[in-house]
Amino acid sequence: MSCFFDFEAEFTASLRCIPMIVRYKLDLCGVKLKLIHWHQLSHEQRQWLVSTPCDRPAEKEHYREQLREWVTQSHGAPPNDLEVPDTFVWQVTSEIPDTVQQQLTTVSHHTLTTEKWAALTDLQRFALVKLSQPGHENRNFWPALQEFGLA
Question: InterPro entries from the xrefs (predicted)?
Answer without folding.
Answer: NarM
